Fold:
Amino acid sequence: MNKKYLKNYFLIIFLLLLSAFLIFKFSKKNEIINVDLTQYEDEEIHNSNVIESISYSSKDLKGNEYKIFAKKGEIDLIDSDVIYLTDVTAYITLVGKPDIITITSNYGKYNSFNYNTIFSENVKINYIDNIITGEYMDYSMQNNLLIISRNVIYKNLENILSADVIELDTITKDSKVFMHNSKHKVNVKNFN
Structure:
């Protein structure tokens, strides 16, 4: 083989490997398929990593939707997928369920790559007649899981419950309520 053909051969192999890598990297099945990064019209950028009035919206393959809004967002300088939020409100809309899950908190940490969100300080979840409050919550859209902890109080029309942690599957509504120390018990008061 002469050098010209050998050079072209290696160039073709390199391009095929590069194409395969890019296709593998950017096509993930069963992942979030639609992300709409929008911001309010009155958005002001004060410096390169702080954004006022920020919002993100995403949908999974099943059509479940997650929207998050904040008065201020600060992009992490080391990992640009991470945004630190202030005065946060989020909405989870599930396909086939008419009611929306609303989450508020003083602060949040949002990952724009995998849509995981950590809410902190004065976390409040509203769903129908249920209110859950706590100081820390981790939400995974991919796993459909809310985990709220630290001074957790759950209230509905009939009960008030206090625990260390509540885990809630947003699709099935299955929940786990527990204490970190097995010697402590979940406190439940019934209003009936």
